[in-house]
Write a structure and sequence with these properties.
about 170 residues, mainly alpha, Serine Threonine Protein Phosphatase 5, Tetratricopeptide repeat, two-stranded antiparallel ribbon, 5 helices, about 55% helix
Length: about 170
């Protein structure tokens, strides 16, 4: 899931790069996809960032936030909020107006595209929530819990071995 973020940025940059003068080409095969708002029939050219935001990460991050909130795993909640804000930031920077306030609503076929002012304010709010959640200490942090689990696994493996280096 996380590895797809830089891949999406690199894939889509191949097509918009000529407009920011990173690359240049003027061959017949060089279709002006960005001139057509990124759409090329029968292709997902310029669609990787969009796909990562809405399909790759989107609902999965909402699940992590919901599940982490129910379990008081504030570090998971905060990390998922940071990723969610980052993906909306990348997507709006790249595509302009995007689906933000109605994103991930179930049983809906048509969505409202929000202005970037609304999106940037929303991203700021998400990041403020993330900072708050990452700063919380009213429940046992997940890293401590994970560290205890790792120590337990190592102890169990070590107890069953014949020599100290036999893991």
């Amino acid at each position: 899931m996380i590895g797809a973020i830089p891949r999406g940025l690199q894939y889509d940059s191949r097509y918009c790069a000529k407009y920011v003068q990173n690359f240049g080409a003027n061959t017949a095969a060089n279709v002006n996809n960005m001139d057509r708002q990124g759409y090329n029939a029968g292709s997902d050219v310029n669609g990787d960032i969009w796909r990562q935001c809405y399909f790759g990460l989107g609902a999965n991050l909402d699940y992590i936030i919901k599940s982490g909130t129910e379990k008081a795993q504030w570090d998971y909640v905060g990390a998922a909020q940071v990723l969610k804000a980052m993906m909306f930031q990348y997507t709006t920077d790249y595509h302009g107006e995007i689906i933000f306030t109605e994103a991930f609503k179930e049983n809906q076929a048509f969505f409202k595209y929000d202005d970037q002012e609304v999106i940037y304010a929303g991203i700021d709010s998400i990041l403020r929530l993330a900072i708050n959640n990452l700063s919380r200490n009213d429940a046992s942090p997940t890293s401590t819990r994970l560290a205890k689990e790792i120590i337990s696994i190592v102890a169990i493996r070590h107890a069953g071995s014949n020599s100290p280096g036999d893991f």
